[in-house]
Each structure stands twice: as C-alpha cells, then as structure tokens.
Design goal:
Elements lengths: L31 H8 L1 H24 L1
InterPro entries: DUF6767
C-alpha cells in the first residue's frame, strides 16, 4: 500500500491547497503572505470571519445531504 502525503492547505485561501504562490515559499510555514496577514489585526479578523463563513456553509451542505 502506498502512502499519500497530505497536501498543505493555504491559510489565506480558505479550503484551497497551498500552491506556493509566494516566491521562495516552501509551504504555508514560510509564506510571506501568511506572515503579513497574520501580523495585521484587521486582516487576521477578516480571515477569521471568512473561515467562519466557510465552516457554516460546509455544515449546511452536510446537513442537507
């Protein structure tokens, strides 16, 4: 049996895999965009709001299934 490596998720583009869109990044752990968003209080709150929206939508879809 072959093991599949997990795909890192982009913390900024909620629900999408990390595509290494920031030059020099090897994943979310050293992405400059993630650093910028997480270091700004307002942007961090907007991202948290987006994550809550996605979570609510996913729960609604599961409940309807």
């Amino acid at each position: 049996m072959t093991r599949r490596l997990p795909t890192p998720q982009c913390p900024i583009r909620v629900g999408e895999p990390c595509t290494l869109c920031f030059p020099g990044a090897t994943g979310p752990q050293d992405c400059g965009l993630v650093y910028l968003v997480e270091s700004d209080d307002e942007m961090r709150e907007l991202l948290a709001e987006k994550r809550r929206e996605v979570l609510t939508t996913r729960k609604a879809v599961r409940a309807a299934s």
